[in-house]
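Worked example 2:
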Amino acid sequence: MPFVRAADAVVHELHGVRFVSYANSGLGSTELCAWRGEIPAGVEGPAHTISREEVFLLLSGSLRLSLDGEARMLSPGDVAVAPAGTLLGVANPTAEPATMWVTTSLGLEAELADGSRISPPWVQ
């Protein structure tokens, strides 16, 4: 399906973050997946190591993104590229919600600090 209407996006919730999936294999993509992440004020997700490259574009608000321990505050329009194997952390230390657009390739997995692996449904 080359077109996905907003009403057809699939919503997932994990670690206090809302993931609104617009492109994945279930929506017709054969290589990439993309979603909007909605991060409420004060939320910090668990650090995790990613198996595939991810590209982050901040749409609104401010976020602190940490790549292998190097943290930066992102403002709307800022982009970060996290190579495969990066230890990634995302936090919204502000009083306002933030949204970002994320793109990666299908099949991404994340390894948490305890060694457990997750394969989020929005990247399948």
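The mean pLDDT is 96. The two ends are 15 Å apart (CA to CA).
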